Amino acid sequence: MTKKLFIETLGCAMNSRDSEHIIAELSEKEGFVTTDDLKSADLILINTCSVREKPVAKLFSELGVFNKKKKEGAKIGVCGCTASHLGEEIIKRAPYVSFVLGARNVSKITEVLHKEKAVEVDINYDESEFAFNDFRTSPYKAYINISIGCDKSCTYCIVPKTRGEEVSIPDSLIVKEAQKAVENGAKEIFLLGQNVNNYGRRFSGEHEKVNFTELLRRLSNIEKLQRIRFTSPHPFHMDDEFIEEFASNPKICKSMHMPLQSGSSKVLKDMKRGYTKEWFLNRVEKLRSVCPEVSISTDIIVAFPGESDEDFEDTLDVMKKVKFDQIFSFKYSPRPETEARHYTNTVDEDTASYRLTTLQNLHTDIVDEKNKEYLGKVYSVYFEDLNKDYFVSGRSDNNIVIKVKGSDELLGEFRDVKITEIGRAHVELQSRGHLVC
Ligand code: 5AD
Ligand code: SF4
Questions:
Q1: pLDDT tens-place string over residues 173-182
Q2: Which of 50, 52, 159, 315 to mutate to test the pocket of ligand 1 (most atoms within 8 A of CB)?
């Protein structure tokens, strides 16, 4: 009888790709097939996120539900970033969990499956050259990891502690994976890394010097590949060479994620982001000067310790100046093993909520204004999803989600589409699923 795997993925796009790797390994080597029915699963996996506190709390409530509903003899495994940072504590708190597998140990999934109470969470483990089996949720768009880990030390961020130090995947492997995805029908690839434009800083073995700009050039030589997207680049590494390649390479989609985090140079310093408000605005100006059609999205944290009203005003000021097409905004959430956790000048909850609402309201006004510009314009759309009610949706080069009436014949196809109606349900910039950083 085939064994059934139920997998729930929380968090960012890297977690989604890790889940695809897990499914690939378990189906090729262990004969599992995936199921959406928890009760019939022989193996239940939860791929976790730890970037903020909420998803961690969610883990233990989810585990309780899984344990109640699972069929007799089914195993439960915890993977991902929370697995990395809580390790065996997970088994202590939820003794029915069979194994814990860290975000940097994905290739060991078939090993831990057979070891009762295994905890594999080594953040120095190097799987940058591991040849994973192949599985993709969508044949149209291929997520491809280009690096693992993160070398930055942003003071609020737990990621370097859960995914370890940054190692780039050799460019030849990335190109090969992209070629394969394209042969299997993907016209678009989505490159993933915690800090993609730091690509090439360190490889696991001897490797020629290849930076992110050069990687983009090499990938765009793949003939049938039509679109390249990536996330997340770091504003600190946005040099002119990178921005100019972004603008001039027709295969690179004109949507840039620029995680601001804060508009205050003082807060940015406390966050150890490595740039100032002026640098960020200068990079936006450079980008828009060479690529006026670019859409820009960002991540913002409000109420970081020590953030004064003036600091927050600086964030609003950057919002007004840049007019981001999309924002992902969060209240600061103290995380274990981070530097900021020890900062005592915290911002009270009411102020944090007020700032988040103010920021989001300002952004809604900006987007409402920007959305009007789309009416009547024609965009080339790559269709990826079949929705209910005979709508097919896809994205423009600059990341607008566009829906048309249609059938699955449109999937994996490009069409020129004229925008006739605007609404949050019809035109909205793509959610990056979740973020990388
Ligand atoms: N608190 C709130 N937001 C955070 N992020 C990362 N760490 C924290 C934290 N401790 C946000 C950042 C990052 C995004 C993925 O999550 O904005 O870019
Ligand atoms: Fe790395 Fe991004 Fe976290 Fe900074 S916010 S440490 S760049 S993962």
A1: 999 999 999 9
A2: 52
